[in-house]
Amino acid sequence: xxxxxxxxxxxxxxxxxxxxxxxxxxxxxxxxxxxxxxxxxxxxxxxxxxxxxxxxxxxxxxxxxxxxxxxxxxxxxxxxxxxxxxxxxxxxxxxxxxxxxxxxxxxxxxxxxxxxxxxxxxxxxxxxxxxxxxxxxxxxxxxxxxxxxxxxxxxxxxxxxxxxxxxxxxxxxxxxxxxxxxxxxxxxxxxxxxxxxxxxxxxxxxxxxxxxxxxxxxxxxxxxxxxxxxxxxxxxxxxxxxxxxxxxxxxxxxxxxxxxxxxxxxxxxxxxxxxxxxxxxxxxxxxxxxxxxxxxxxxxxxxxxxxxxxxxxxxxxxxxxxxxxxxxxxxxxxxxxxxxxxxxxxxxxxxxxxxxxxxxxxxxxxxxxxxxxxxxxxxxxxxxxxxxxxxxxxxxxxxxxxxxxxxxxxxxxxxxxxxxxxxxxxx
Length: 427
Known about the structure:
The chain is an alpha/beta fold. The protein has helices at residues 37-49, 90-99, 109-126, 131-142, 153-164, 216-219, 251-270, 290-302, 314-323, 339-344, 356-369, 383-398, 417-424, and strands at 30-34, 56-58, 83-85, 147-150, 169-173, 176-177, 180-182, 188-190, 192-201, 204-214, 238-244, 279-285, 307-309, 332-334, 349-351, 374-380, 402-403, 407-409.
């Protein structure tokens, strides 16, 4: 959730009409990039080759696997370029690549994996497979206080000991900290992250510092501890429904997300399940279509799902949140960061991906901390990228920062990014 490089969320959604308003004509001292990972990397490489700003800003929509591995910018000079990245759990990367050697990690994979653990451990804390009880214990296992445990086989073993005895845990996911902020309407979204500041030395990304980011105060929400209410036992398999785009334009990412959920299910079941009951995962393919995603929700709820994970794109997630599966209390853990999802949600919806509005507060804060005053915004013509761009402009303006008129890039285009970057520094 941050500046140049968050590894969570992201969305391959359809193009939209971007919100483009006139900005300042002052030369930029930072570039903010909101677009798919390939576009963002191309912009960054062009900017590093140019004589330009010393800090680059990106949100979760912009970051793909291996974006900031060492020595990926051999042509870049040793200058004080500042970047910020969310630290990655290397153990998860190893487990995922071992289980699916032919599947590259994609945005949303870690959040999907974490969501399975959230549901399973909420059932364990509630000592129940009732969907309402699971819903009401997600915050309990995710938020502090409690003993920190990782979403992993080892963390599961420790969680069984603690929760089985009526204790408390603070789940740390493969995607990072999983604390949920809850607003006045009872809607919950991830609100904490760890941010790592990087610089470039001899063509390599080099970490400088790591800091925690807590946006509860910034967004005027609460970070509740949750309440433990033990049930009478887990007497049936825990049926998790998932919605992912395993066909269509987002099939590569959707398949990786489905595989990540299956990995978590296998780890939990190999350890004996939850309360001696297995996790059962059913994945419905939405093909990237909102109407299909809404129908998939109805199918999963009718099949007895006690929780729903997904979808992963803004448009499909918004359709699912608008449908909500009738009167079912089953929680929905979305993997898409669009603010519209939260605006339409009930207290059944948990945004596991950081919201654009939360990320851009961090972006603007860090930019002003480094005394940056004028941002050149390069934005892909998609709903999620435009939402993040608009949110960043609002947050940066509140911090008395200025922004130039955004440069809009259509999906699939291959423009001259060198010329675009040079234009950012022109009066």
